[in-house]
Amino acid sequence: RLDALLQILGGLQYLHSNSITHSDLKSANVLISEREGTDGYLFKLTDFGGSHAEISSKIMSNISSISNKKKKPGTTSFEAPEVFMGNEKTCASDVYSFGMVMYELL
Q1: C-alpha to C-alpha distance for 8 and 37, rounded to whole angstroms
Q2: Which residue, 25, 48, 52, 77, has fewest beta-carbon neighbours within 10 Å?
């Protein structure tokens, strides 16, 4: 289980280091495959449909003013509390979702 969590966290860290928010991290969005030649497994993040790059607040306010206010993709039980209060999904809310995945795996 620890190896699975570390691999998922590594994928999330890669996204965040490139200023990308996954926005729908949950166990159902993790693919599992066998590692060839070993008895271990590979865990890879999937479903990047809700992902977005973090951009400057000035650009974001311009985008928000012209876009409609549809509900952002995501799974309610894995979303951070601040998302319920209307805040945008961020790398921090991804970390909360990772915590929910950890809870589910343990």
Answers
A1: 21
A2: 77
- Chain centre distance of CA 37: 30
The residue from 3, 24, 39, 47 that is catalytic is: 39
Compute and round to an integer the Cα radius of gyration of the chain: 15
Handedness of CA 83, 99, 103, 25 (dihedral sign): positive
Domains of the chain: residue spans and CATH: 2-59+73-105 (1.10.510.10)
- Could you confirm whether 3 is annotated as catalytic? no
Q: What is the mean pLDDT of each run of 10 residues along the chain (106 residues)?
A: 94 92 91 90 87 60 48 72 88 94 90
